Amino acid sequence: MAKIEATQVSGGLSATGMRFGIAVSRFNNFITERLLTAALDALERAGASGKGVDVVRVPGSFELPLTCKKLAQTGKYDALIAIGCVIRGETAHYDYVCSETSRGLQLAQMDTGVPVIFCVLTVDTLEQAIDRAGLKSGNKGFESGLAAIEMGRLSKKLRSSATTSDATQKKARRS
Length: 175
Ligand code: INI
Known about the structure:
The protein is of the alpha/beta class. It is built from 5 helices and 4 strands; from the N terminus they run βαβαβαβαα.
Protein backbone atom coordinates (compact mmCIF):
# COMPACT_ATOMS: atom_id res chain seq x y z
CA MET A 1 0.00 0.00 0.00
CA ALA A 2 1.36 3.42 -0.95
CA LYS A 3 2.29 5.60 1.97
CA ILE A 4 2.71 9.26 1.19
CA GLU A 5 3.94 11.81 3.64
CA ALA A 6 1.49 14.66 3.27
CA THR A 7 2.51 18.22 4.11
CA GLN A 8 0.72 19.22 7.31
CA VAL A 9 -0.51 22.78 7.66
CA SER A 10 -2.03 24.31 10.79
CA GLY A 11 -2.03 27.59 12.68
CA GLY A 12 0.03 27.93 15.85
CA LEU A 13 -1.21 29.23 19.17
CA SER A 14 0.98 32.27 19.70
CA ALA A 15 -0.95 35.53 19.71
CA THR A 16 2.12 37.77 19.93
CA GLY A 17 1.84 40.70 17.53
CA MET A 18 -1.65 39.73 16.36
CA ARG A 19 -4.74 41.94 16.27
CA PHE A 20 -8.21 40.81 17.32
CA GLY A 21 -11.66 42.39 17.24
CA ILE A 22 -14.35 41.13 19.59
CA ALA A 23 -18.03 41.98 19.11
CA VAL A 24 -20.12 41.33 22.23
CA SER A 25 -23.89 41.27 22.56
CA ARG A 26 -25.34 43.13 25.56
CA PHE A 27 -28.43 40.90 25.54
CA ASN A 28 -27.96 38.28 28.29
CA ASN A 29 -24.85 40.16 29.39
CA PHE A 30 -24.70 38.13 32.59
CA ILE A 31 -23.44 35.35 30.28
CA THR A 32 -21.73 37.29 27.48
CA GLU A 33 -19.46 39.24 29.85
CA ARG A 34 -18.22 35.92 31.27
CA LEU A 35 -17.53 34.64 27.78
CA LEU A 36 -15.68 37.87 27.00
CA THR A 37 -13.51 37.66 30.12
CA ALA A 38 -12.49 34.09 29.21
CA ALA A 39 -11.78 35.01 25.56
CA LEU A 40 -9.55 37.89 26.70
CA ASP A 41 -7.82 35.57 29.15
CA ALA A 42 -7.01 33.10 26.35
CA LEU A 43 -5.64 35.88 24.11
CA GLU A 44 -3.57 37.39 26.92
CA ARG A 45 -2.10 34.04 28.01
CA ALA A 46 -1.07 33.38 24.42
CA GLY A 47 0.80 36.68 24.20
CA ALA A 48 -1.70 39.23 22.83
CA SER A 49 -1.35 42.77 24.15
CA GLY A 50 -4.14 45.12 25.20
CA LYS A 51 -3.32 47.39 22.26
CA GLY A 52 -3.93 44.48 19.89
CA VAL A 53 -7.49 43.82 21.03
CA ASP A 54 -10.60 45.95 20.44
CA VAL A 55 -13.97 45.17 22.05
CA VAL A 56 -17.19 46.47 20.46
CA ARG A 57 -20.56 46.12 22.19
CA VAL A 58 -23.84 45.67 20.31
CA PRO A 59 -27.47 45.39 21.50
CA GLY A 60 -28.09 41.72 20.67
CA SER A 61 -26.77 38.71 18.78
CA PHE A 62 -28.70 39.73 15.67
CA GLU A 63 -26.42 42.78 15.37
CA LEU A 64 -23.19 40.73 15.49
CA PRO A 65 -22.91 39.88 11.75
CA LEU A 66 -22.97 43.44 10.43
CA THR A 67 -20.59 44.58 13.15
CA CYS A 68 -18.14 41.78 12.37
CA LYS A 69 -18.34 42.48 8.65
CA LYS A 70 -17.54 46.14 9.24
CA LEU A 71 -14.67 45.27 11.59
CA ALA A 72 -13.29 42.81 9.02
CA GLN A 73 -13.50 45.43 6.26
CA THR A 74 -11.20 47.77 8.18
CA GLY A 75 -8.34 45.35 7.38
CA LYS A 76 -7.02 45.86 10.92
CA TYR A 77 -7.69 42.41 12.37
CA ASP A 78 -6.19 38.94 12.03
CA ALA A 79 -9.35 37.37 13.45
CA LEU A 80 -12.66 38.33 15.04
CA ILE A 81 -14.76 36.77 17.78
CA ALA A 82 -18.55 37.20 17.89
CA ILE A 83 -19.94 36.72 21.40
CA GLY A 84 -23.64 36.27 22.12
CA CYS A 85 -26.13 34.16 24.02
CA VAL A 86 -29.56 33.25 22.69
CA ILE A 87 -31.92 31.53 25.11
CA ARG A 88 -35.04 29.78 23.80
CA GLY A 89 -38.26 31.51 24.76
CA GLU A 90 -41.92 30.87 24.07
CA THR A 91 -41.91 32.35 20.57
CA ALA A 92 -40.20 31.70 17.25
CA HIS A 93 -37.95 34.72 17.89
CA TYR A 94 -35.20 32.36 19.09
CA ASP A 95 -35.11 30.52 15.76
CA TYR A 96 -34.89 33.72 13.72
CA VAL A 97 -32.14 35.20 15.89
CA CYS A 98 -30.13 31.94 15.87
CA SER A 99 -30.36 31.24 12.17
CA GLU A 100 -29.74 34.81 10.99
CA THR A 101 -26.87 35.31 13.42
CA SER A 102 -25.06 32.12 12.39
CA ARG A 103 -25.77 32.67 8.69
CA GLY A 104 -24.68 36.31 8.88
CA LEU A 105 -21.45 35.51 10.71
CA GLN A 106 -20.55 32.82 8.20
CA LEU A 107 -21.25 35.29 5.36
CA ALA A 108 -19.09 37.93 7.07
CA GLN A 109 -16.07 35.65 7.12
CA MET A 110 -16.68 34.25 3.66
CA ASP A 111 -17.17 37.71 2.13
CA THR A 112 -14.12 39.28 3.75
CA GLY A 113 -11.68 36.38 4.23
CA VAL A 114 -11.16 37.37 7.87
CA PRO A 115 -11.86 34.48 10.30
CA VAL A 116 -14.92 35.08 12.49
CA ILE A 117 -15.18 32.77 15.49
CA PHE A 118 -18.72 31.77 16.44
CA CYS A 119 -18.99 32.24 20.20
CA VAL A 120 -22.77 32.47 20.31
CA LEU A 121 -24.43 30.15 22.81
CA THR A 122 -27.76 28.82 21.55
CA VAL A 123 -29.43 27.11 24.49
CA ASP A 124 -32.80 26.11 25.92
CA THR A 125 -32.25 27.38 29.46
CA LEU A 126 -30.21 29.87 31.46
CA GLU A 127 -28.71 26.91 33.34
CA GLN A 128 -27.29 25.51 30.08
CA ALA A 129 -25.82 28.91 29.30
CA ILE A 130 -24.17 29.13 32.73
CA ASP A 131 -22.69 25.65 32.24
CA ARG A 132 -21.04 26.78 29.01
CA ALA A 133 -19.85 30.09 30.43
CA GLY A 134 -17.55 28.66 33.06
CA LEU A 135 -19.45 26.14 35.14
CA LYS A 136 -19.83 22.45 34.14
CA SER A 137 -18.88 22.52 30.49
CA GLY A 138 -15.80 24.74 30.48
CA ASN A 139 -15.96 28.17 28.96
CA LYS A 140 -16.85 28.63 25.31
CA GLY A 141 -15.21 32.08 25.43
CA PHE A 142 -11.80 30.61 26.25
CA GLU A 143 -12.13 28.04 23.43
CA SER A 144 -13.11 30.83 21.07
CA GLY A 145 -10.04 32.86 22.01
CA LEU A 146 -7.83 29.89 21.13
CA ALA A 147 -9.77 29.30 17.90
CA ALA A 148 -9.28 32.96 16.92
CA ILE A 149 -5.51 32.69 17.39
CA GLU A 150 -5.30 29.44 15.43
CA MET A 151 -7.46 30.67 12.55
CA GLY A 152 -5.69 34.05 12.45
CA ARG A 153 -2.32 32.30 12.23
CA LEU A 154 -3.58 29.78 9.67
CA SER A 155 -5.03 32.53 7.47
CA LYS A 156 -1.71 34.39 7.50
CA LYS A 157 0.09 31.16 6.56
CA LEU A 158 -2.29 30.27 3.75
CA ARG A 159 -2.15 33.84 2.43
CA SER A 160 1.65 33.84 2.32
CA SER A 161 1.89 30.35 0.80
CA ALA A 162 -0.68 31.38 -1.86
CA THR A 163 1.45 34.47 -2.62
CA THR A 164 4.59 32.33 -2.83
CA SER A 165 3.00 29.82 -5.17
CA ASP A 166 1.59 32.67 -7.34
CA ALA A 167 5.11 34.10 -7.62
CA THR A 168 6.54 30.65 -8.42
CA GLN A 169 3.95 30.12 -11.15
CA LYS A 170 4.63 33.57 -12.67
CA LYS A 171 8.37 32.87 -12.64
CA ALA A 172 7.81 29.48 -14.29
CA ARG A 173 5.67 31.08 -17.01
CA ARG A 174 8.37 33.70 -17.73
CA SER A 175 11.17 31.12 -18.12
N1 INI B 1 -30.69 38.62 21.42
C1 INI B 1 -29.80 37.80 22.01
O1 INI B 1 -28.60 38.00 21.87
N2 INI B 1 -30.24 36.74 22.76
C2 INI B 1 -31.56 36.46 22.94
O2 INI B 1 -31.89 35.49 23.64
C3 INI B 1 -32.51 37.32 22.33
N3 INI B 1 -33.94 37.07 22.50
O3 INI B 1 -34.29 36.08 23.12
O4 INI B 1 -34.74 37.84 22.04
C4 INI B 1 -32.04 38.42 21.56
N4 INI B 1 -32.90 39.27 20.95
C5 INI B 1 -32.51 40.58 20.48
C6 INI B 1 -31.96 40.53 19.07
O5 INI B 1 -30.69 39.93 19.01
C7 INI B 1 -31.81 41.95 18.50
O6 INI B 1 -30.92 42.70 19.29
C8 INI B 1 -33.13 42.72 18.44
O7 INI B 1 -34.13 41.96 17.79
C9 INI B 1 -32.94 44.07 17.67
O8 INI B 1 -32.54 43.84 16.34
